[in-house]
Amino acid sequence: MALAKGLRPVQVGAVILAVRILSVFLVQTWYVPDEYWQTLEVAHKYAFGYGALTWEWQKGIRSYLYPSVVAVLYSVLKFTGLDYPNVVIILPRILQAIISSIADYKFYKWTGNRKWALFLILTSWFWFYTASRTLLQTLETAFVAIALSVFPFKTGKLGYYEKESSTWLWLACVSVFVRPTSAPLWIVLGIYNMVTTNQGRIELLLKTYLPIAFICGVMLVGLDSYLYGRLIVTPWEFFKYNVLGGVASFYGEHPCFIPHKEFRFVLPLLPILLYLAQDVIVPWSRKAKKWQLYGVTMLMLVGNLLPSLYFGVIHQAGTLAVMPVLRESLTENRSSILFMMPCHSTPLY
């Protein structure tokens, strides 16, 4: 695989960043409402003083962590007078593209700098389609990739003597507040860590797990409580309304009784699946003939390029394209518009 042959770490990082920034400007289509209504709309309301909040924010099932970061960007734009519509639209996506780039680089390092891993993460059409979107699942996926790159996996006999990093625990805690549905993944990894640790398990629990959970929890509960104006634990509110209250079932149920399923909800599994994929393709590539390597490479490129262009440029592009037209046509914010579409099918900010 000659894609990354001879590339230094800085060059690899530059290539990754270039691809992610490209997606900011190339992907100009609508995917799901949460990209806007769970992040940008919330941030816009707090930075500029107007905007709409959906029922999730009224019930307190979302953390303000990600929207507050975007709100800081918006506040800087407002203070400097640079809050032009296009800048307000593009800047948060550039921020997310940078975060995703860091995650991609960490994924590359996690695989041992394997060139096929870099190729897979850069050519994945769905990651190209979502990596620069301000979706909570995109941020969650980035956290998963970064956490896995420092997770104390035990590989070989020497692995049991290596120093264990606790960085992944901080990311796990933050991830649960961003998306409580990520908890099962971290629980599985936590159990694995407790079983395979080279430290005492009680010591690991008391000196690492509990202090990190306490510090992270207090900080995030404090942030959410301050912005909501009342004491609130958003992961619990999420669980109470979606699971105990059955709200998730309103959006549909799977025959296996899994409520509110959407394809994007499994996006955080992408780093794991790509890791498994490169772990298969690398040994094969060492034995494959040159024509087979070129054939598979071209098949993967074309197979990912076509959906990247279609979903990024054509599919559901109208819901975004209409907003600048409305913005320029309606000079007063008091104007009323009737959208005869499914709820929240367009951004409002």
From TrEMBL:
Q: Is Transmembrane included in the keywords of this UniProt record?
A: yes
Any one GO biological process = GPI anchor biosynthetic process
State a single Gene Ontology molecular function: alpha-1,2-mannosyltransferase activity
Please report the record's description of how this protein sits within the membrane: Multi-pass membrane protein
Q: What is its EC number?
A: 2.4.1.-
Task: Look up the record and report any one GO term of the cellular component aspect.
Answer: endoplasmic reticulum membrane
Q: Which residues cross the membrane?
A: 12-31, 117-136, 168-189, 209-229, 265-285, 291-313
Localization, per the record, is:
Endoplasmic reticulum membrane
Please indicate if the UniProt record lists Phosphoprotein as a keyword.
no
Its keywords, alphabetically, are: Endoplasmic reticulum, Glycosyltransferase, Membrane, Transferase, Transmembrane, Transmembrane helix
Q: What is its main location?
A: endoplasmic reticulum
The superkingdom of the source organism is Eukaryota
What would be one Pfam family of this protein?
Glyco_transf_22
What is this protein's record name? Mannosyltransferase
